[in-house]
UniProtKB/TrEMBL annotation:
NCBIfam families: D_ala_D_alaTIGR, PRK01372.1. This is D-alanine--D-alanine ligase. Binds 2 magnesium or manganese ions per subunit. PANTHER family: D-ALANINE--D-ALANINE LIGASE, D-ALANINE--D-ALANINE LIGASE B. The gene is ddl. Residues 110-309 form the ATP-grasp domain. It comes from Alteromonas sediminis. Belongs to the D-alanine--D-alanine ligase family. Its EC number is 6.3.2.4.
Length: 318
């Protein structure tokens, strides 16, 4: 039986947490509204709740039974809200405190994956207090001449840039420092980009993205109709199996649970490199998890119910 068939009648009152104070607030509001409407359509008692405008303890006053977290970015995806909900004794969807905190930090994610033998692109770490623009030429050479600049703890490609010379690297790093005092400089992998969704132990079909943008940036994700999505992704059965298995191993290595989405690149020699784990992926009209679930035969409303069902995680989460 499907999770929704088993547990919808046990959901009780669901608060859809959306909005928040991160740089991804607008995407969070869109995701939250889409999920709220899906739950209402399935007959679930659900209410919107923006923790940036209401104190969290109101969830107890409202007699909420569980929380569907649709807060993207800091404060919602980094273990903060998860810890607060645990303190309040409220079940919630997705990863626990530890898995959320690790996955939100792209640097720690890469370090853990490296430690267990999972391939990820070569990288350097720079800090705002010690960064020397004079080192940019050496960094470009070390990382192969094309570099992705990423704030260590942001999502939705916010603050990211792709650069191919020392001068633009210095500028991009300065821009990234507006969002985070830690910045990841990552070797650019020439090849195709994929993403793989995971719900509990079920791995969804991979999606391949193609965009005329320099890379799959914020506009390509949320604003530009020219971005193309391919699901099935064009991989052979064996390659698809390899990628799904790799992503599930990577998901578990970060102490993740519930659901999430892993982004990967495949180079021109056919090798996969994992980029990051999103523990609360977007659930908007253009989001990737719903696209993969649809190919897997799961409608959006049922997908949302599956995500709510992850709040029934047994025992203590990590």
């Amino acid at each position: 039986m499907t999770p929704q068939a088993v547990q919808i009648d046990k959901f009780g009152k669901v608060a859809v947490l959306m909005g928040g104070t991160s740089a991804e607030r607008e995407v969070s509001l869109s995701s939250g509204q889409a999920c709220l409407q899906a739950l209402l359509a399935k007959g679930v008692e659900a209410i919107p709740f923006d923790p940036s405008t209401r104190p969290l303890h109101e969830l107890v006053d409202l007699k909420v039974d569980r929380a569907l977290i649709m807060l993207h970015g800091r404060g919602g995806e980094d273990g903060t809200i998860q810890g607060a909900l645990e303190y309040l004794g409220l079940p919630y969807t997705g990863c626990g405190v530890l898995g959320s905190a690790i996955a939100m930090d792209k640097i720690h994610t890469k370090q853990i994956w490296q430690s267990v033998g999972i391939s990820t692109a070569k990288y350097r770490i720079v800090t705002q207090s010690t960064f020397d623009a004079g080192s940019c030429s050496a960094i470009m050479d070390e990382l192969g001449g094309i570099v992705m600049v990423k704030p260590a703890r942001e999502g939705s490609s916010i603050g990211m840039a792709k650069v191919n010379c020392a001068k633009t690297l210095a500028t991009a790093v300065s821009t990234a420092f507006r969002y985070d005092s830690l910045v990841l400089l990552e070797q650019y992998i020439v090849g195709k980009e994929y993403t793989v969704g995971i719900i509990k132990d079920r791995v969804l079909p991979s999606i391949r993205m193609s965009t005329p943008h320099t890379f799959y940036d914020y506009a390509a994700k949320y604003e530009d109709s020219t971005t193309q999505y391919f699901c099935p992704s064009g991989l052979s059965d064996e390659e698809e199996k390899q990628l799904r298995s790799l992503c599930l191993d990577a998901f578990n290595a970060l102490s993740a649970s519930g659901w999430g989405r892993i982004d990967a690149m495949r180079d021109e020699q056919g090798r996969f490199y994992l980029l990051e784990l999103n523990t609360i992926p977007g659930m908007t009209a253009t989001s990737l998890i719903p696209k993969a679930a649809k190919v897997d035969g799961v409608a959006f409303e049922d997908l949302v119910c599956e995500i709510v069902a992850t709040s029934f995680a047994p025992g203590v989460r990590v």
